[in-house]
Design goal:
The structure is a homodimer. Chain A is of the alpha/beta class. The first copy, chain A, is 41% helix and 16% strand. Chains A and B meet through helix 5, helix 7 and strand 6 of A and helix 5, helix 7 and strand 6 of B.
């Protein structure tokens, strides 16, 4: 039976550090503030918004939600981003993505001030991850994976890591972070003919395919540590499921994150920690 | 016996496209111009300078060499970079690296105008490579590898590629480019315990270890295509050698680039093509 890598203790440890930073800021008269920019009212966005708002409230971080209609035009969206950039009381901005299809996502991402890019979506933040300079903010889910590995004392140096999925939100940044932590990293994607064969070589397997339960028993070696970043509603089973087929994999691997309660439980804590870091950074 | 992937025919094909662009620019009264910024007079820099200058002259691209003393101070260097940024007659800047140790390389890199970053050293160019947006300019040696694969019709889709070395000059960017070309990519580095075992799985093997003849016979499978980006003077053998042990590998693999006359022979052509692209970009 695999070790269950629960997210809650990792989140608590991050939150404790964040709370200490918030207390320092409070002594200096600064209340960190996150602006959430939401277009439309998709269920998944609203659920994410509730989770982040709750975490912020617990830690003394203010939240301002800017909800724009689903049919908002690009120029109006850009004006809102610009206003958030200029608002000195806002330290970080979380823009829910993907935006509706009629909007230019790339232009919106690029418009965000790098200093407020707490979700790691700008070219500056992604260059920082790629170059390993530490500039900008790391995409939260990718960083959450690394926080889990560190918290549970899972060695990365010299280990084989396989990342399933090459998105800019998770796959590519987590590959960079794993390599910076001296793992030997392979990224598999939809054009990889034999992902299971490659995945079986992994000491650390990151499931970020974006397809529910697409990672089966044939993907894991007995010593593998499996981190599952997916989260989808499985109508057949009537529950939330990850990108890994948990029931099939769990008996076979060394350790695995549950869904829910794994990587996703850490992501919000990482985001809020970034907001507080951004507030600290404004103090110079 | 392996197919020899010579750089010269690849360079010629790139140069032909560049020459056509230069002719177009000439009709519009524009002469593309590269500024070379050199600190000190290291042999390797001078040799690179001669190669680039010759290629530029052949193609009708002007070259201006700015040679600063080896003990130049940071502020003077930054002023020169700033002046090159502002000089409208200069379309691209090649700064030889690494700079002497007393200088802040990262600050110098960051100071260069992204539009003139024909060598792909700024965060903007590297973010473009990482994100696959096509913004900025790809580091020339990494692009040279891709040009060779394309020229010789070597399939990348669904193939295993192993990159030996994780530098920002070659290893990391070429890994991004190979992944963008739908290869499944693994990066090995100095902390990889068993690089030869991993390399033997490669259909395409990029040797960018930075250590002469460090890639031996045990690194290649019979079907492997080997690209060698290294170039060092081998005093014992009295000749230039790559990062691969050519004599040991060549009888075992399917195709291999020679050193000299392989990847290095393509890099200058890529650089000059970037200068001309930068000149075209100024026309809007």
């Amino acid at each position: 039976m695999a070790q269950l890598l629960k997210g809650a203790p990792v989140a608590e440890a991050i939150d404790a550090r964040t709370a200490a930073d918030v207390a320092r800021l409070s002594q200096m008269g600064v209340t960190p503030k996150l602006a959430i920019l939401r277009v439309g009212d998709k269920d998944s966005d609203l659920s994410y918004e509730r989770g982040v708002s709750k975490r912020c409230a617990k830690l003394g971080v203010q939240v301002e939600v800017l909800a724009l209609p689903a049919d908002v035009q690009q120029d109006a969206l850009m004006r809102e981003i610009s206003a958030l950039n200029e608002d000195a009381t806002v330290h970080g901005v979380l823009m829910f993505r993907p935006l509706p299809r009629h909007l230019d996502q790339r232009a919106a991402d690029a418009a965000l001030a790098p200093a407020k890019d707490v979700d790691g979506i700008t070219a500056g933040s992604l260059a920082g991850v790629f170059m390993g300079t530490g500039e900008g903010y790391t995409p939260c889910t990718a960083q959450a994976c690394m926080e889990i590995l560190a918290h549970y004392g899972i060695e990365t140096v010299g280990k084989r890591a396989v990342v399933l999925g090459r998105s800019l939100v998770v796959g590519r940044p987590v590959a960079c972070l794993l390599m910076a932590a001296n793992a030997t990293v392979t990224i598999c994607h939809t054009k990889t003919p034999d992902p299971a064969v490659i995945a079986r070589e992994a000491d650390i397997l990151i499931c970020a395919t974006g397809r529910m339960e697409s990672v089966g028993a044939d993907y894991v070696a007995p010593d593998a540590v499996v981190l599952d970043v997916g989260i989808s509603w499985n109508a057949d089973k009537g529950k939330l499921c990850g990108d890994a087929d948990f029931d099939a994999i769990e008996p076979l691997c060394a350790a695995i994150t549950p869904v829910p309660g794994g990587v996703g439980a850490v992501t919000n804590s990482v985001l809020v920690s970034h907001v507080v870091q951004a507030a600290l950074a404004t103090l110079g």
